[in-house]
Each structure stands twice: as structure tokens, then as C-alpha cells.
Amino acid sequence: MKHYANERLAQLAQDRGMPGEYIRDLRVVGSVLPFKVNEYVADELIDWSAAPDDPIFRLTFPHRDMLPADVFDRMAALLDAGAPRDELRRAAAAAQLELNPHPGDQLEANVPTLDGRRLDGLQHKYAETVLVFPSQGQTCHSYCGYCFRWAQFVSRAELRQALRDPADLTGYLGGHPEVTDVLFTGGDPMIMRTEVLRRWAEPLLEETPSVRTLRFGTKALAYWPARFTTGPDADDLMRLFESAVAAGRHVAVMAHFSHPRELETEQVRTAIARIHATGAVIRAQAPLVAHVNDDASAWSRMWQTQVELGITPYYMFVERDTGARNYFGLPLVRALEIYNEAVRGVSGLARTARGPVMSAGPGKVMIHGTAEVGGEKAFVLSFLQARRPEWVGRPFFAAYDEHAQWYDELKPLSASGASFPPFPELAA
């Protein structure tokens, strides 16, 4: 597989006809945020005749507005002046910290311990589910510009979550029988060779009977479907899925599809069919982001296509408050409008997609709609998942705000006396 990053990415853009002004912007933004595409994305998904406005181009290539204007200008001045590499690296590191590399209290509240040691490659936020970041899987076939895991890809060890030893995972799970689901994430676990993935997955079948579901969070179906079809160990991967299903486990491929075009190639459809043949299921999720899929008809088409291909639409997320959020983010009001219009355009089978959903510090917050409460317009919200299980399903309200883009920007209802955050524990 051929990859394009850094100067190779700039050369690819130049070879495909992008102007010199854009190439400069690419180098400036790429000095702070990570970008990479592979030959499949470049050749099969991007419509270069429509670039830079093509949605897959916007998804995978830099744009100057992905950085705050002052950060862009600072980095551009250094690059234009031919600053030494070490000076550029220090400036980029400072800029990265300004972009909130680990939102939602990931490193403060979610990291568990084992025998007094922090397990920095695990996240245990919700009682039933543990996320694991295998050290060998902390990259992707291509990068999405909106990715809230971008800090995994910037070559800074202090920002990266990675677990090196599968025994730490099974050791932790042995003391936590409440955990039923393990989610392999990254990066992308499908970047790993199957023999490596086996070292992480098979002990869960043999040593942790409380774990009933194995989830694999991946963009590989969209960005490199050959991983499941003609790749050198694709057949072995299918056997791994089959063996997990035969062992009585539910295997869920948590696929990230950001645009309906990612579902249209023959390669991806063959890969989907192969996964289904193992007994595994596929659930699809993605954030709603400007310039890529901020169009209700795109979501309707994507959800309908997923149903036709046997995929379950799962989540429409809100872009998290990190990285290039100032470029990709949308007001919650607009997100709710797009979700409602998209849902109205599909049958009930595609309405399994829940949204808009914010994966915020306290939990997964769903925006149900708006209402009038005490004479004041309000957002109606609830937790789909929460750090405290008793919060789940309890509706609460926040003041309507046409500009707010994230949970932390919401405010109390001044007229009604209703509180926000909704529960006293959240305000502490």
C-alpha cells in the first residue's frame, strides 16, 4: 500500500493540480496536525476535478482554517523564514497543546490502574466497556482531518495512549467482571497484522468469560477495504472473527463511514459481505462535520445504503472540542436540524442512528430536540451513557443557544430555575 504524508502529500496535491498557494497552506497546517492518505483514498474516493471542495478531499487534506488564525500565521512565518527544524518542532508542540489534544477528561478521569500502575493504553469510562489502545495499532490507513484522536499521530509520546502488553488487559479485566465489552481502538486496530491482533483478542476468549462482546473501531472499510479481502492476511482475519463468534462472543466491527461515497466502491461492498459471512456484525458511526457531510440528504443516503448492505446505523456524533473543531464544527442547533431532516428521509430500519450525540466528559449526551420550559426555549437532553449509571435516561434541559457547539458551552435556564449541569454531581 502506498501512503502519502508530509512532503509526499504535498507532491501528490501538486501532481493532481492543486495551486501553489494551497501547497503552502498544506505545509503550514501539516506542520501542526497530522495528515496521511493512501492510494485507495487518492485514486478511488477523491474527485480531483472538484477539489478542493470535494468532500473526501476536505476530509483528508489540510485547509488553512483548520488552525486558529494566530497559530497559522505563527507557523507560516517560521516556515517562510526557513526556521530550523528544532524551532519548528517546539512551535508545533506549543500549538498542539492549544488545540486541546485530550478532550473529555480522557487522561485525568478514564485511565485505570493495575497493581498501582496507570494503564495508559486503557480507558474505562463506562462500567460495562473498556477501550484498549494496542501499541501496534496507533496509526491509520489514512487520517481524517476531524479525528479527535489526532494526538495519537503527532509523534509525541506524552500525548499518546498505548498499551504494550496484552497481559495488562486481561489482568485488569480479571478484577472487573462488570466489563462485558472490550473495544479495540486507536489509531485503528485493523492496521495491525492479524497475528498481532490475535495476541490481543484470543486471550479474551480463553481467560475472560465475563467479556461477551469484542468491538473493533475501524475506518479500514472506508479507507482500505483490501484489509478484509485481498490483503496478505485477510483470510486469517476472517478466521479470527469466525473463531470469536464460534466461542460465543458477539463480534462488532464499529465502522466509521463519513460520506456515502465511501460505501459505493466494489471493493468496500465485497469487504462488507466477507465480514458478514463470519457471523460478525457491522455498525456505522461518524461525526457530523462541516465541509464533508453537513447535508441531510448525504446522511439519508448513507444510512439507507448501510441498511441495504446489512450495516446498522449507530451514531451521528457532534464534532468534539479538539483539533480542527473550529473548521469542522457546527452549532448544535444546525446539527439537530440536519439529524431530524435526515431521519425523516429514511424508513424505520435506518432510524437506529442516534444523534446528535456529544461524547463529553460526563458521558454520551443526546440532543432530543427543543421545548419551552418555564416560558424559556430549551434544549431537551439525556445521557445515553454516563460515568454514573443513574444519570442514564434522565431528561434534562439547557438554555437554547444558537451558537453553542459543545456540552461545556451550554448554560442553565435562567427563567425556570432548572439547573445545568443537570445533576449536582456534575457541577462539583
UniProtKB/TrEMBL annotation:
InterPro entries: Aldolase_TIM, Lys_aminomutase/Glu_NH3_mut, rSAM, rSAM_sf. The keyword Iron-sulfur applies. Its cofactor is pyridoxal 5'-phosphate. It comes from the Bacteria. SUPFAM superfamilies: Radical SAM enzymes. Keywords: 4Fe-4S, Iron, Iron-sulfur, Metal-binding, Pyridoxal phosphate, S-adenosyl-L-methionine. This is Lysine 2,3-aminomutase.
